[in-house]
Amino acid sequence: MPATSSPDRTPGDPLADLHDALLAWLPQQRWFPAKGRQVAGLRTVSHAVVSTPGETPTVEHAVIGVSFADAAQDPVGGSAEERYQLVLGVQASPPADVEYAVIGRRGEDVVYDGLADGRISRQFLALITENAVRGPLRFVAEPDTEAPIVGPGRPLIGEQSNSSVIYGERAIMKLFRRATAGLNPDLELHRALGRQGSGEVAPLLGAIEGEIDGEPMTVAMLQTYASNSADGWSMAQASVRDLLAEADLRPDEVGGDFAGEAHRIGKTVAAVHLELAAALGTHPLDARGAEEIEAWMLERLERAAAAVPGVAEQRDAIADVLRGVTTAGPSTVQRIHGDLHLGQELRTPTGWLVIDFEGEPSKSLADRVRPDSPMRDVAAMLRSFDYAAFHQLSEWEQSADDPDPQLERRAQEWADRNRSAFCDGYAEATGTDPRESPELLRAYELDKAVYEVLYETRNRPGWVSIPLRSMRRLLTPAGRGER
Amino acid sequence: MNEGVSASVTAAPSDEDHVRDVTEDHGASAVEEPSADDFRHARTLPVDDEWYKRAVFYEVLVRAFADSNRDGFGDLSGLTDKLDYLAWLGVDCIWLPPFYDSPLRDGGYDIRDYRKVLPEFGTVADFVELLDQAHARGIRVITDLVMNHTSDQHHWFQESRRDPDGPYGDFYVWSDDDTRYSDARIIFVDTESSNWTYDSVRGQFYWHRFFSHQPDLNFDNPAVCEAMIDALRFWLDLGIDGFRLDAVPYLYERDGTNGENLPETHAFLKRCRKVVDDEYPGRVLLAEANQWPADVVEYFGDPEVGGDECHMAFHFPLMPRIFMAVRRESRFPISEILAQTPAIPENAQWGIFLRNHDELTLEMVTDDERDYMYAEYAKDPRMKANIGIRRRLAPLLENDRNQLELFTALLLSLPGSPVLYYGDEIGMGDNIWLGDRDGVRSPMQWTPDRNAGFSTCDPGRLNLPIIMDPVYGYQAVNVEAQSNSTASLLHWNRRMIDIRKQHPAFGLGSFHELGGSNPSVLAYVREHVDVDGHRDVVLCVNNMSRFPQPVELDLIAWKDRVPTELTGGVPFPAIGELPYLLTLPGHGFYWFAIHEAEER
């Protein structure tokens, strides 16, 4: 499909009549990340009819490009155009239960978000089990697995960056909203882990693949659904609340102690690392590779220093710690999760699952699939325990003039205890204690904290005190290593 | 036969006549066992194949419930006098721990005579009267039967040690040394150092899985099996509604095994079940097997035929995890154990409980979990006993009414038949200064009067002291006072039992956990379709946290239905397309009926 910038509409663009409707509809979608940004234009990148003639409703697949007026000023480096995938249902008078998903009208037809339509999600599931090809979309069942044949899917509500439908609590299909050329690491790693027989991820059942710019693109993936699960972040929050409600008990003395779970999470993450290494290999990190990582960290530091005075003041001290990546000595790299935090771990009745292997959203695909040290994931988890410990405090402090040093100390005790339990669990499973590489761990942790400071400054100013506090701690000698 | 163990045994007697013959030959005193025909039989209730699935059970310690003859000891007649109270409360079945003649060195689990009632408790005739009066009120009665062992004062053991060649010579497990079956664990680690004890009379060691004064019977001897089945028949003929089979995993011993859950044990239980099915339909067998659910389901027997061993079995690991979940403010300890619990045969049912006459047993938890339970619930070392915590429900929960209600709501709504422990319905306390497990076996507190209304004897004569502390003492906590206040825990318990009875889903229904995004909230649906196609759906939502919590539940399967809260009948907003939002107070819970659309 020829690509042309809106508002100049290309004759024959099947979505031409819908551009205005889409511009109004997009900012209401939770997965549309640039709510605060000024949209300059919208164009159709590709479009295809997926349904066979005569089928009702008509199903279309499209990729749209959204360009932004403020691209140059974006400190996190948002590009000028972001591309998003749409699955559209088209019918003259669609059923009432998709009314909330209507985007607009095209001639006689109503066009709506196809994932809201149970007929469409049921059809997609069936096509996956049949390994069907429809237009540019290839539906692929994962070998040696069996997708459950259940009825229509139901949209999952409350999701952030993608859109999913759930099939009778048995399976979940996730449509990747951001359209990127190449194999999506979420699909790639789930496939690799599944073939390792991993018990730490929800088994992959299939995928939908397409094309963009003449290259393959991952459209969607189908997985077993962990219906009875809660994420690690909410569980950690319950534990912190329990601690802070006590007058003077220590984290190991309160009923809601989380250390047992933190230990299990450590073992789970370690198992994922071992399985990824077994599936996709490890490489020794040579000096050049380490320098590349260091350069990347320093570049990110520069961007943060430019935007946040608190970072700029400490710029040199931070850079010293980040150089630990090159001075720490030889290490190995492998495929990792890349965007790990407590919210990416699900507690099920049988244990923990790691989810969402897409990698850090702000990075390019090439950066996301580049082998990196498992320490990056470990450091990210340690950061997440800090967040969990201090989040409650930051909620309270917004109304208080001064942080209560007693509460801060107790939150720190919670973080220390659970970070330590996580490392214990990790060491138990891999035989290598991450705390035995303090320079490396500290560099990765500080790198993450610097990124968080920038992110929070831009998105959630009320939370910025959390990474700032950690940043200061990581810059003092007492912050070295874990207790 | 148990080859090799009993070194000096001749041919084993195989039937009763033979027993008598051999007995006479040796001049030993074989007791003429009483027959059920010597007694009046109680009236029977109509046969109901599913009563145990719907029933609310209530465990009564006879000696601690009511004393009718002023000897300081509760007795069967005293219990008979209190049946109206139990009927008022809504109890469907009373479970009596052993009331047999016994030297009482293990709370009556050391039986001296299977066909005699402990004299302090009364007589067999008193028992028949209790049974008759209970049946008159629609209440069933089951009791413990200890098959694994007897008291060392049992006539069988006395004969066995005295005369190895006599009719009872092979009734127990004898050995020349104490080395066999070394893979079997020691259960009462506080008091026993070996499962073998030397008997100087016979000059051999005898096997005991529990106390050394409780020798294990030798089930490899067919005469032992016959004697045990005859003991079952004796009470079933009198009209008893079933047995809780105590310590059932340990009946047989085999080298190279831990001596638990052996195939021979299951084969014997199938034999007992057949006797019940053929001769006493509607009566039940309940297994006490403190094992993991995957092992316990074996005690239900063959699922192909709906179960052909025990009708019921206790779900031991669930109980400590309810306590753990609430302290951790996380549903996962409960979710985890229920996910590990296999499906059970169609005619089988779990028995679930919060507390009983034993310690809160921590055998079915990991070491870490046990440390955790001790730290949270047994802060004083005196609160521990064996591998567990010897405390009552109310003190375990620091007398927090909200938690007492939450725990009871869980007990009454999780899959299985609930077993209440006497006194917990009024929130009785315990006395950790009493030895062994007596701390949770103190007299029932009926009134604020002398001896808590349990007995009119001199207070010094009481079998165990009444609880007298300022919080749980009988002047503060007693049935009379709570009967007079409709806001009392007693009335609350009665209302909840009543609600449970109105909804067959609680006893008969399937169980489906809903999950939900809030890890502190445990939500599940119980659903039952009766033979007429009437569907009973109950939604239970429980907040494990002490803080108020919101939860969003996926109830799309019941779209457009209106959940009706069960204690008050208030209709809640109809279920729509979006997740159903509920807010719960700290340790709060809801029970909802989800009616069929057309019933609204």
Shape field of chain B: globular
Q: Helix fraction of chain A?
A: 25-40%
**Beta-strand residue fraction of chain B:** 15-25%
User: Strand arrangement, largest sheet of chain B?
Assistant: 1-2-5-9-10-11-12-15
The termini of chain A sit apart by 58 Å
List the quaternary state of the chains.
Answer: heterodimer
Structure description:
The complex is a heterodimer of chains A (483) and B (600). Chain A is of the alpha+beta class and 483 residues long. Chain A has helices at residues 19-25, 118-129, 185-195, 232-244, 259-280, 287-307, 309-313, 315-322, 324-327, 365-368, 374-397, 405-430, 438-459, 465-475, and strands spanning 39-49, 58-68, 81-91, 102-106, 109-113, 133-134, 137-141, 154-155, 163-167, 171-175, 204-212, 215-224, 230-231, 282-285, 331-334, 345-348, 351-354. Chain A is built from 14 helices and 17 strands. In chain A, strand 1 and strand 2 (58-68) form a beta hairpin. The radius of gyration of chain A is 24 Å and the shape is globular. Chain B is of the alpha/beta class. In chain B, helix 11 runs antiparallel to helix 12 (332-339), helix 11 (318-328) crosses helix 13 (367-377) and helix 15 runs parallel beside helix 17 (489-502). Classes of the chains: A alpha+beta (483), B alpha/beta (600). Chain A: Pathway: Glycan biosynthesis; glycogen biosynthesis. Chain A: Belongs to the aminoglycoside phosphotransferase family. Chain A: Its EC number is 2.7.1.175. Chain A: It holds the Pfam family Mak_N_cap.
